Amino acid sequence: MSDRLSVFKTYKLFVGGKFPRSESGRVYEVTDSKGKWLANAPLSSRKDARDAVVAARKAFGGWSGATAYNRGQILYRVAEMLEGRREQFVAEVAEAEGLSKSKAAAQVDAAIDRWVWYAGWTDKITQVVGGTNPVAGPFFNVSSPAPTGVVAVVAPQESSLLGLVSVIAPVIAGGNTVLVVASEKAPLPALSLGEVLATSDVPGGVVNILSGKAAEIFPSLAAHQDVNAIDLAGADAELAKALEVAAADNLKRVVRPQAVDWAADPGTGRLTAFLETKTVWHPTGSLGAGGSSY
Amino acid sequence: MADVTASDGALRRFLHGLPGVDPVGLEARAAALGTRSIKTTAKAYAIDLAISMIDLTTLEGADTPGKVRALCAKALNPDPTDRGTPRTAAICVYPDMVATAAGALAGSDVKVASVATAFPAGRAALPVKLADTRDAVAAGADEIDMVIDRGAFLAGRYLSVFEEIKAVKEACRREDGSAARLKVIFETGELSTYDNIRRASWLGMLAGADFIKTSTGKVAVNATPANTLLMLEAVRDFRATTGVQVGVKPAGGIRTTKDAMKFLVLVNETVGEEWLTNEWFRFGASSLLNDLLMQRQKLSTGRYSGPDYVTVD
Fold first, then answer.
1. Which terminus of chain B has fewer CB atoms gathered within 10 Å of its CB, N or C?
2. Domain boundaries, chain B
3. Rounded mean pLDDT of chain B?
4. pLDDT tens string A10-32
5. pLDDT at position B245
6. Contact between B47 and B72 (Cβ < 8 Å)
7. Is A281 in a helix, a strand, or coil?
């Protein structure tokens, strides 16, 4: 018999850089793929979601105003921290998704690499999707991408860590802030990711992680006037339709659920989905008789 | 009660003879009343009531006539998307902006309140304070928010504070015999103890205050549930003793609907429904209104609103 008492972990939400329990006090049982109990996870309420929107909005000014280079460094720091806790995540992903240890390790490695991928993109996406436009008139015309705002995401249901990272990293890489509802049946890797983010210089509120039932809390987020975009990656067809209808009122950007191989090269699609194009007309200055000097 | 203000000694004996405040009990009571859950129709009622009790305030060195007029327009029509939204009780400005506000609010039931008496420090000679007050009243102020001389109060010169409030009350009279209502600000954050807040409340009411007000909003500690509860108890006891009803105005630091509803619960549970009108209870606030409007929109549309849908003041 062991001398030590087991130390069970209390999984908590990650909102505004803090680790609160659900305001409702509710939890639900999380089991592994064979039905064995793993832990209790918070069952978030609509109020938790609303608090997360407030936290995300508060963080938006600072995060969107940070230089792209700085954001890249912070995202790379997330990869560093995740690498340091690789073993823990391998074990959690293996339990959550019923994978062998080697397959789970491949998922975790891919998730770490995904942070590096998006860390590299933060200061390059502007050159790729922005640029100068030819216009008829004495103007410089410059377009550059700007973040959409607060983005709410339904995380993929099957891929508990790689899928999650694949949907939140592109959102924050572009300068948005995000709140994500983790996979309902496998939320533990997501809740542990909150601990990684909290130690990675990611400002509080930039990423907010909730666990619970998307069908319960997401309708109020889809209708929320202070949420600018929603990503329905993990929503089933029926829920996705209802959410898209609810999102129409304030013209939110909506990314519909689609079949994605999370292990494949992610491209820049999810990055540009949450960027708006800002175009500036800048006069070239007074034109002399000889025309512009430019 | 007349004899208690007959001399400095009598006033001191009276104020120091007031029962001591039990700080633990006071804070526990205020905290307990703050836990009430108010939902649906009661919440809708509380939100509309709170909006109607706001003294929409701008007291900045950078106030311009344009900003004051914009704030007046907001007081008259807080939510342009819903004309059923009640108006605020008043606009609260510095004396030099009173004429601008009075012009913008002419013909409406929204009052013009003006701070006076060398607000917020109150560090000026009495003639200056009285001239400040008369100017504001002459410019059209319906209500005067004066600050007490905290230095004199803390030094124990109660009678001089009393005389000063009486003099300002006199300066609130208009030529036609009517008078602006007088709100007396204690700056509770500077009074150090709850006992002092109770003494200041009685002192202000004895001197003829129509309202007693917690604070200027310019110091670190402003209105708290505990000091407001204490002042509500004072106005309740004062009416029981003298038959005169006095209003209460917490000001500063009340920013959310939830905070405002906690104060309304305090009012209802301490002094009752007679004070649940903007005649006798006010909030000194500016950003509170936007939060109330967002909550009101949530109740009427079912959607959480956001700061993009209310004005930036």
1. N
2. 2-304
3. 96
4. 999 999 999 999 999 999 999 99
5. 97
6. no
7. strand
Nearest CA in chain B to A219: B303
The helix or strand, by DSSP H or E, that contains position A27, with its residue range, turns out to be: strand A27-31
In this complex, do A225 and B302 lie within 8 Å of one another by their Cβ atoms? no
Question: For chain A, what are the domain ranges?
Answer: 27-283
Cα separations (Å) of A191 from A25, A99, A102, A203, B193? 16, 19, 22, 17, 45
- Listed in sequence order, the residues at least 6 apart from A89 whose beta carbon sits closer than 8 Å to its beta carbon are A82, A108, A111, A161, A189, A192
* pLDDT tens readout for residues A151-191: 999 999 999 999 999 999 999 999 999 999 999 999 999 99
Q: Across-strand partners of B284?
A: B55, B251
Question: Is the Cβ of B305 closer than 8 Å to some Cβ of chain A?
Answer: yes
Relative to beta strand A139-147, strand A131-132 is antiparallel
pLDDT of B156: 95
Q: Which CATH architecture has domain B2-304?
A: Alpha-Beta Barrel (3.20)
Distance of CA B127 to the CA centre of its chain: 24
pLDDT at A137: 87
Residues of B numbered 174-213 whose beta carbons fall under 8 angstroms of chain A's beta carbons: which are they? none
- CA–centroid distance for A30 within its chain: 22
Predicted structure pTM score: 0.89
The answer to whether the CB of B72 falls within 8 A of the CB of B110 is: yes
What confidence tens digit (pLDDT) does each residue in B284-309 have?
999 999 999 999 999 999 999 988 89
Q: Inter-chain contact B304–A226, Cβ cutoff 8 Å?
A: yes
A-B CB pairs within 8 A amount to 25
What is d(CA B209, CA B201) in angstroms, rounded to the nearest whole number?
9
CATH homologous superfamily for the domain A27-283: Aldehyde Dehydrogenase; Chain A, domain 1 (3.40.605.10)
How is residue A253 annotated by DSSP?
E
Residue A292 confidence (pLDDT) above 60: no
Kind and range of the H or E element at B30?
helix B23-33
Q: Residue A223 and residue B306: Cβ atoms within 8 Å? A: no
